[in-house]
Amino acid sequence: MELTITNLSKQFKDKTAVDDVSLSLTPGIWGLLGANGAGKTTLMRMIAGILKPTRGNIFYDGKDILTMGEEYRNLFGFLPQDFGFFQDFTVKDYLEYVAALKDVPAKETGNKIDSLLHTLTLTDVKNKKIIKLSGGMKRRVGIAQAMLNDPEILIMDEPTAGLDPGERVRFRNLISEFSHGRIVLISTHIVSDIEYIATQNAIMKAGKILNAGTTDQLVKQADGKVWTCVVPAEKMTMYEMQLRIINQRSEGSNRVAVRYLSDEAKTSDSVMVTPRLEDLYLWLFPQEEISERGR
Ligand SMILES: Nc1ncnc2c1ncn2[C@@H]1O[C@H](COP(=O)(O)OP(=O)(O)OP(=O)(O)O)[C@@H](O)[C@H]1O
Q1: Among residues 58, 100, 114, 254, which is most buried (max CB within 10 A)?
Q2: For residue 230, what are the β-bridge partners?
Q3: CA-CA distance, 140 to 146, in Å (whole number)?
Q4: The organism sits in which domain of life (predicted)?
Q5: Domain ranges of the chain
Q6: What is d(CA 41, CA 132) in angstroms, rounded to the nearest whole number?
Q7: Ligand 1 pocket, residue 21 CB under 6 Å
Q8: Is ligand 1 within 6 A of the CB of residue 15?
């Protein structure tokens, strides 16, 4: 199974949101990383077949998805970023409704819904109206509806937005288990949400895919640029101004362990360390550092 994207572009008046993207998606979990406005949502909506490209094509095993109609929709699950719920439906009624739309066989619907509600810890609220749910719960109902038809291709736009740390871990486990033999594409600007589950990543900037590959392949670009050192706490203000700090942790005794990005060592005790995906991301998107550190 393969989704082949060739020379795909989307133009909104004078804005090129997606700019000549070519990418081959094979089974596994794909992380689509990029800053706000990079074009992730636009690319995903085109892959979902709900937005027509200005130029280029998307092929599912050689067939243009725009010619596949219902056949494509039936093998597809999509969690949009802005989810238009039927707020007056209960969770269970809503999922039953989606299951019917997606042609899930009636005799499988009950079990399928119960199992997703259980995995996504929504069983207790299944008879509640969606309008009464928290943001994180609504997101999980969104995840459930995207997975209801056991899609071969699952596209999720910022699925972890609004989830608490425990829910994030459960989401990662659920997706890892689900992904065997399927294409799962997850967009996020929170690198840690996909760092350990993505088999491949595509990094998007200004409408283009800058790079695609396994985490190991990608992080090589930040080789030699990530350092750690320990500095006196009273000098942290100075270091914060001088260094591109990725994170800092108090070591006690007024000392702070610092991880930073630089072409060369900036303190005499700095040790070069193996880069992680988050390091590479911050290297490529320096403007994200403040918001990432502020999380
Ligand atoms: N319908 C539209 N009309 C005009 N411009 C649009 C439209 N949709 C998106 N854009 C613009 O295209 C660019 C890419 O937007 P897109 O939502 O795809 O990015 P993104 O990477 O998903 O960002 P975010 O993480 O903030 O959702 C942005 O500059 C956005 O303002």
Answers
A1: 58
A2: 257
A3: 10
A4: Bacteria
A5: 3-217, 221-293
A6: 27
A7: no
A8: yes
Ligand 1 centroid, distance to 16 Cα (angstroms): 9
CB-ligand 1 contact for 17 (6 Å cutoff): yes
- Dist. CA 257 → ligand 1 center (Å): 38
- When computed from its CA atoms, the radius of gyration of the chain, rounded to whole angstroms, is 21
Tokens for 217, please give them. Answer: 């392949």
Verify whether ligand 1 is closer than 6 Å to residue 40 (CB atom). Answer: yes
Splitting the chain (295 residues) into consecutive groups of 10 residues, what average pLDDT does each group show? 97 96 96 92 95 97 93 90 80 94 91 94 95 91 94 94 88 93 92 88 94 92 95 92 92 92 94 94 72 41
Residue 28 phi, psi dihedral angles, 5° rounding: 135, 180
The CATH number that domain 3-217 falls under is: 3.40.50.300
Nearest CA to ligand 1 atom 8: 42
